[in-house]
Amino acid sequence: MNYKKYRIPLMVIILTSGILLGTQIQKALADDNLFANVQKFHDVLMLTQKYYVEDIDTQKLVEAAINGMLNELDPHSVYIPAKQMTAVEEEFRGDFEGVGIEFQVVNDTLTVVSPITGGPSEQLGILAGDRIIKIDDKDCIGITNDDVRKKLRGKAGSKVKVLVLRIGVKEPMEYEITRDKIPLFSVDTHIMLDKQTGYVSVSRFAEKTTDELQSALNDLQNKGMKQLVLDLRNNPGGYLNQAFQIADLFIDGEKKIVYTRGRRKEFDEDFYASVASSYEKIPLIILVNRGSASASEIVSGAVQDWDRGLVVGETTFGKGLVQRQFPLSDGSSLRLTISDYFTPSGRLIQRKYKDKDKKDYYMETMDRQDEFDGENLDHKTENDSLHPTYKTGKGRIVYGGGGITPDYFVKSEKLTDYSANLIRKNTFYLFALNYIDLHGASIKKTSDDNLAKYISSFDLSDEDMKAFIEFAKTKDVKFVEKDYDTEKDYIKARLKATIARNYWKNEGWYSTLIPMDKQVKKALSLFGKAKELANIK
Questions:
Q1: Among residues 151, 256, 319, 531, which one is catalytic?
Q2: What's the confidence (pLDDT) of residue 13?
Q3: Mean per-residue pLDDT of the chain
Q4: Which domains does the chain have, with CATH numbers?
Q5: Which of these is catalytic: 294, 300, 345, 419?
């Protein structure tokens, strides 16, 4: 037999077998190490349960151990207990089942802040300011927020009876409400700031955000919009796919919008613009601040990298990590970081987090002292060795490793302690509720139920403001004359906006307050620059 002709194939088989065997041995050792650590944790838990001086809650210990383990990773890998999952799923899905009201418990009374647009309560005629005193014939004075949710939420199609007191109506009114799916809108409002400028505020990136935004933009376009302010301030992010779809509304061709890279190749994804849109040539300004994170940074980063529009405000949060949610057997979930995301130019937006306490990591964005008001188109302010350098489509220098730095800095105005306490104690809403009870008929008559007329003709008198100050004192908000004098115009405007929200919901709130918004006012002055940067004629 000629053994020579089998020598090379035999060597290949032996070599391959050796590699496979070595791989399996390495895997077995790794598995043994993992098993040994799991066994160690099991032993500690069992010994603690058996011998500890007091009775223990093993579930509480296990969840504490999970959280301790995740604390060794990054700040955005988190454990979500089963009892919180319903609220989390509703927020990201963008709906829940119930009667459709925003509410507060005021002086032990369940009070309707606003019926949700399109919900069953609004359709039946329930109004802002209504007091619900009975639910299914049972008195609900002194009800808690949790009990309100338990009693008013329920399966779509089920019914609940409520007894309502309304100012100006002598007898209580009974409503039978058929519960339904209630939308949780992520587009807070869309309005025209002037005859050609549209404004849209997006609060998060949920399952239906792209559809909501598309509808809002279409409505504004029908009203004459020629340029847009997209407000992503305090938007913490959400779904990655919603971020790239929204960016695609404004970015043309097949340009890259975002890409992700992880330890495992199945988590590597590249997202490109693909859908033609009528908004690809509209002058665009995006507002951001320290609370703009994740998906907000994907949109603003893509717009900045392609010189598609201007980013105005403050440096964003700096979250460039992608999480995937894994359901666990008891209904809880693990939200685990699986990859980094990068802007089109290659920027990793994630701030440094290693060797930092989680609290310090979240608080450090609030302590930034190096920002100013002014132009930053050349981004020289970030020019240091800590931040890697990248270039936009037009060759402008931008930097990675620390959020999206705006093209124009406009710092948020810090509230005085007095104003902050007024907000914290819910004083604006509580006073507005009483004010509307007393003067609601007059407000309606003066405004003819027209928001623009309300804004131009209604004003709070000096006597009203004195009454507000005295009311705030009853809520343990000590009057600080110096702070009040500094922010009197803001306090009055916020109170007026709170009253407006009672009649015109978010549109009333934003339309009343925006004229005082320093960052919006700056944005309105920059559309010439935005057109020049994007080559829009």
A1: 319
A2: 45
A3: 90
A4: 95-183 (2.30.42.10), 187-323+339-412 (3.90.226.10), 417-520 (no CATH)
A5: 294
